């Protein structure tokens, strides 16, 4: 496998062979633990590569939202085609029966659905096979989430899966696309409003100084995030390990 600096010089077919699976996660809090769990090597601060379950994988951190995602995708090697693309990370619940740590699978192939059921039972997880709706902005309050749920009828919401799927299918109509997300915030949870989207420490320090009332919310979110991340990683590892049924 070439180092990442060489990837831009390989052909479309070689890129697909080297990195047949592309995994996208929005933030370092999502991408880095997944990369570590799949034993992927860091090529830069926002890209990781290696093999897991006999499959070559490229994992990239895209940033939050459609605009950041599209910018990051535009930086991938020109003409690169992936035979499968996985959108992963956190999502927000749109139904009251969902709670932090529930797994949502949207678009899972039939063969992998059976495998997911096995993992669900063996690990005692709550796994739902349903639609993840797209939102252009973070839904910070229960009121916003309930209103959005009424409009879409979806089980959960994220900000990246839909544009990523459009990009993947445009690059390769035969691409196998799946969104595998874990619920971070339940329908009744409020998220810190106007939280910084930058991951730089100075952004958070300034936010905490200017928004002291947000500290409690961030504290709760931190522990929810850790729990949700562990569950997502366990599920992904089980699903991708020796996944011969993933084309």
The largest pleated sheet is described as: 10 strands, mixed
Q: What is the total tally of β strands?
A: 10
Structural class: alpha/beta
Poorly predicted parts: 1-13
* CATH level 1 class label: Alpha Beta
Instruction: Please identify, by name, the CATH architecture.
Output: 3-Layer(aba) Sandwich
Strand content: 15-25%
General form:
globular
List the total number of helices.
9
Order of helices and strands: HHEHEEEHEEHEEHEHEHH
Q: What is the arithmetic mean of pLDDT?
A: 84
What's the alpha carbon Rg, rounded to whole Å? Answer: 18 Å
Specify the CATH homologous superfamily: Nucleoside phosphorylase domain
Number of domains: 1
Q: What portion of residues is helical?
A: 40-55%
Q: How is the CATH topology named? A: Rossmann fold
Features:
Rossmann fold; 9 helices; ten-stranded mixed sheet; alpha/beta; 247 residues; 10 strands
Which helices and strands appear, and what pairs or packs with what?
Blueprint: H1 4-7, H2 12-18, E1 21-25, H3 28-37, E2 41-44, E3 47-52, E4 55-61, H4 65-74, E5 84-93, E6 103-106, H5 110-123, E7 127-129, E8 132-134, H6 142-152, E9 156-158, H7 161-171, E10 176-185, H8 201-210, H9 215-240
Parallel strand pairs: 1-4, 1-5, 5-10, 6-7, 8-9
Antiparallel strand pairs: 2-3, 3-4, 5-9, 6-10
């Amino acid at each position: 496998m070439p180092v990442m600096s060489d990837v831009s010089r390989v052909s479309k077919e070689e890129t697909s062979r080297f990195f047949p699976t592309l995994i996208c996660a929005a933030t370092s809090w999502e991408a880095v633990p997944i990369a570590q769990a799949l034993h992927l090597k860091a090529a830069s601060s926002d890209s990781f590569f290696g093999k897991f379950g006999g499959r070559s994988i490229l994992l990239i951190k895209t940033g939050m939202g459609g605009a950041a995602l599209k910018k990051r995708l535009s930086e991938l090697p020109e003409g690169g085609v992936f035979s499968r693309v996985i959108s992963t990370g956190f999502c927000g619940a749109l139904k009251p029966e969902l709670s932090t740590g529930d797994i949502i699978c949207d678009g899972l192939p039939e063969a992998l659905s059976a495998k997911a059921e096995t993992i669900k039972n063996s690990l005692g997880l709550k796994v739902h096979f349903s639609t993840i709706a797209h939102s252009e902005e973070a839904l910070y309050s229960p009121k916003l989430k309930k209103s959005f749920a009424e409009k879409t009828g979806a089980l959960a919401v994220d900000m990246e899966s839909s544009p990523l799927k459009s990009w993947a299918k445009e690059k390769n109509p035969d691409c196998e696309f799946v969104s595998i997300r874990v619920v971070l915030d339940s329908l009744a949870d409020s998220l810190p409003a106007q939280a910084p989207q930058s991951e730089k420490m100075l952004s958070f320090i300034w936010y905490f100084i200017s928004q002291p009332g947000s500290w409690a919310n961030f504290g709760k979110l931190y522990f929810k995030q850790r729990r949700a991340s562990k569950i997502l990683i366990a599920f992904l590892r089980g699903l991708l390990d020796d996944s011969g049924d993933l084309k």
